[in-house]
Amino acid sequence: KMIQCESCGMPMKKASEFGGLNLKNKYCTYCTDEKGKLKPFEQKREEMINFNMEENKVTRKEAEKLIDKLMKRMPAWSNYYDH
């Protein structure tokens, strides 16, 4: 079964992709600090928005809309949004 990061949805296949290089971590290396602890919501949201703007050449408003839609569905962040 494929394991996905519960923060961003990234597939995690190799140990290097798991936060803190821990295969039991529910979060990927991009969503965690060097110890494997999940980054704060605001920091992660900002990083994902910036990455999305850069990667997909979209406006901040478009990126925010997309990232909020994604994060709302993620187990790590669903409680940060009103459903």
CA gyration radius, whole angstroms: 13 Å
SS field, number of helical segments: 2
Number of strands: 2
SSE order, one letter for each helix or strand: EEHH
Secondary structural class: mainly alpha
Short key terms for the protein model shown above:
2 strands, two-stranded antiparallel ribbon, 36% helix, 83 residues, mainly alpha
Describe the structure.
It is a single chain. The protein is mainly alpha-helical and 83 residues long. The protein has 2 helices and 2 strands. The chain has helices spanning 41-56, 60-73, and strands spanning 3-4, 11-12. A two-stranded antiparallel sheet has the order 1-2. A hairpin with a 6-residue loop joins β1 (3-4) and β2. The radius of gyration is 13 Å and the shape is globular. The N and C termini lie far apart (28 Å). The mean pLDDT is 96.
Topology:
Blueprint: E1 3-4, E2 11-12, H1 41-56, H2 60-73
Antiparallel strand pairs: 1-2
Helix pairs in contact: 1-2
